[in-house]
Design goal:
By secondary structure, the protein is α+β, with helices and mostly antiparallel strands. The chain is built from four helices and four strands.
């Protein structure tokens, strides 16, 4: 089944468009197997309703933003025709629609399979985990160095207090020696 399927790449997803809307739009042209949209973050959308200049309700919605996406059609022929016919056309059908100024930027990916997309995601996860491990080990080294210096400073303070209680003249000399050794 995967050999007969075709994948279309969407290079730009308009703001506030989600996978459900994409599925609704593209399911008109043919059956869709899978959709994947690459998330980039969240946006706050504040909706304020005014009634005679008094704010009635204030609703805050968090909507997920996407940078790019992939759509797998069940038939390769349909994927090719959708990419060719809808590329560089307006998204909205009405003049006053939400997406009426946005254009589709579609490309049919020849010899590209859904498994390639999964491999890419797995590779990014491995790289991310490696970065986290190296960062954690670096932080542990920093922590141990700080704790070692803290122990040394406490030891120096204890020696200084002991020497001060004795009243020795060699406090300054020994303090200078200890501070130069700890660096």
């Amino acid at each position: 089944m995967e050999r007969k399927s075709g994948i279309v790449y969407i290079s730009r997803i308009p703001p506030h468009m989600n996978p459900l809307k994409i599925q609704r739009i593209f399911s008109r042209y043919g059956q869709i197997n899978r959709i994947f949209l690459q998330p980039i973050g969240y946006s706050l959308m504040i909706n304020i309703r005014n009634s005679t200049e008094i704010v009635r309700s204030k609703r805050i919605h968090e909507t997920k933003l996407y940078s790019e996406g992939w759509i797998e059609f069940k038939k390769k022929k349909i994927a090719k025709s959708v990419a060719f016919s809808l590329n560089n056309t307006k998204i909205g059908r009405k003049n006053r629609g939400y997406y009426d100024h946005d254009f589709w930027n579609l490309k049919y990916l020849r010899k590209f399979r859904w498994s390639h997309l999964n491999e890419k995601a797995a590779h990014h996860n491995v790289i991310r985990e490696q970065r986290l491990r190296t960062e954690i080990s670096w932080m542990k080294k920093q922590n141990t160095a700080f704790l070692d210096n803290l122990d040394k400073s406490r030891a120096i303070d204890a020696i200084v207090k002991r020497k001060e209680s004795i009243g020795s003249e060699h406090v300054k000399v020994s303090l200078l020696r200890l501070s130069s050794c700890s660096k």
